[in-house]
Design goal:
85 residues, single chain, alpha+beta, 4-stranded mixed beta sheet, 4 strands
Length: 85
């Protein structure tokens, strides 16, 4: 599924997001990757509740807002910094 601009937060509505639902490890609610064409793919855990889905997709958008994909540190370091704010 591709998220249309009207479903995106106004501050990032110029980005293109593909959303893929997968049965993933319960400890991983989502994962976001930037694609070579500049779009993003968000992998959402299909086992999430609706409330967790909303929280997880917002978390993915926060990574885009903060340009975390352009940083040169590990995913673990980015997540540690995000959750300690």
């Amino acid at each position: 599924m591709i998220l249309e601009p009207e479903f995106l937060p106004k501050d990032i509505n110029s980005e293109v997001f593909n959303v893929v639902y997968l049965d993933m490890d319960p400890a991983i609610p989502e994962q976001i990757n930037q694609n070579p064409d500049g779009s993003y793919t968000v992998f959402l855990n299909a086992r999430l509740s609706y409330a967790s889905y909303l929280k997880s997709i917002d978390h993915a958008f926060d990574h885009v807002r903060n340009r975390d994909h352009q940083r040169c540190c590990s995913v673990q370091q980015i997540e540690t910094e995000r959750h300690n704010l």
